[in-house]
Predict the structure.
Amino acid sequence: MKITVSELIVRYLRHLGIELLFGMPGSHVLPIYDRLHGSGVRSVLVKHEQGAAFMAGGYARASQRVAACITTAGPGATNLVTGIANAYVERLPVLVITGETATYIFGKGGLQESAGEGGSIDQMALFSGITRYRRLIERTDYLGQVLNQATRALLGPDPGPVLLSIPHNVQKEEVDAALLAQVQRPPAPVPSSARAGPVPALARLLREARYPVLIAGYGCIRAGARGEVTRLAEALNMPVATSLKGKGVIPGGSTLSLGCLGVTSDGDAYRYIARQADLVVFLGAGFNERTSHLWDDRLLQGKALAQVDRDARQLGRVFRPDVAVHGDIRAVVEELLDRLADCPPKDLEPLAAHRQGSSRPDAARDDERTRFHLMEAFFRRLARHFPADTLIVDDNIVFAQRFLDVSHAHHYLPNTGISSLGHAIPAAIGAKFFHRDAPAFAILGDGGFQMCAMELMTAVNYRIPLNTVVINNGGMSLIRKNQYQLYGGRYIDCEFVNPDFRLLAASFGMRHYRVETEADLDDLFARADLVRGFNLIEILLDKHVFPSYLSAR
């Protein structure tokens, strides 16, 4: 049976299990849009193509499934770049479909042409560094192989974005419907614990160490190993620090939790590791600028080091581990539990002493908590009010890193990819399409809010309840902080006037809550419908107050 290429592409979406297509139509992609009618694939109209890329990324990250977005040629595609770059860094399987001018006018100056001919932009070159696979499909005779390659890139062990750009005339050509049967899913990876390799050596390090510490990263969440990591920590009385993306690997309220390790954290994990640990084991965690406190040597000096990661490229990338294990984190931890079943638990007295020391008054720490008491109070109430099944997409990260306790049952998605402003609202909308019943919070600064505010209408249009929390200090706080600390307080382009958020919320059909005191927070959590409502929550912060941590020079 013959069908059009546009029909085949829609069937391919269904073949991948894609139910939502975020995007914006344009003339060069209308044949595909037309075939969406009655297909079972629902299109979601965004306000800006960047929003489509961030929504697809949010959906992919929340669901760990393939997500998709679609735009027309030219500006439609170029507007995707930041969101797709973020998906590339986050290794998210996002299928990008773009239109293109008809092949017979390539090089003639067609409207929005982006085939790289005759002085037009070269879309394939533009996306070459931010996609795992990309193809301008000029003919149909190799379409099956293209879809096979795309599927391998999306579903393989190292996933990432895929771009398929399809000229308008090619979309209308006919192909055999059986072509889709040629598209093969890559075999599911078999979890490898490297049983014959260095796992016994890692078990020996753990057995011999007096004061080991685990640093758990997002790789533990991705491997579905939260429970196993917690069991290992509890079996050995081993403290656990997490990376920012790894928050929730071990419940924040656990007696073994050191909290988050990172330059914007409260420093508790840093102090314990630097002063006490004799073995540091990285489980699916990188040692990037944020986690490493700007690669502070004191964290790793004089300690045995071990690293476990499913990505061999991470092993030894920043530091030389004494033991490196390339394998599935869950399988490795399960094997460690078997090998260490008879290992006596470690002495918790140093951890208890550390806790006692941390509870003593500290002028600098207490002063910082006083300055940000409203943000601390907000996150404490959020965790208490919603102890489970809550979706939190966080662009600010500074306050959540130190004040938010994340449980196993939370879905905490910090903006860690390329740390782009304008991410939280569309990413939260995309993630909320998957977690339909979870209360959802998009947390961001007032600068980032103005980059993506119109996507709130996407949430309203599709009845996706969302709580948007805007930290209002009338400026770009990170820039202002850096200009204060590093450039003698010579401020430039870091302040602005905000709109009236109450009137703005009303124009969106949303409820507005202005938070200036803890009493306002009590009122918010008592009165607001934070589960099914559309709320714009404005938390006021003094622009002259910012965290004391020092950014890289």
Remarks:
- Residues 49-63 form the longest helix (15 residues).
- The two ends are 63 Å apart (CA to CA).
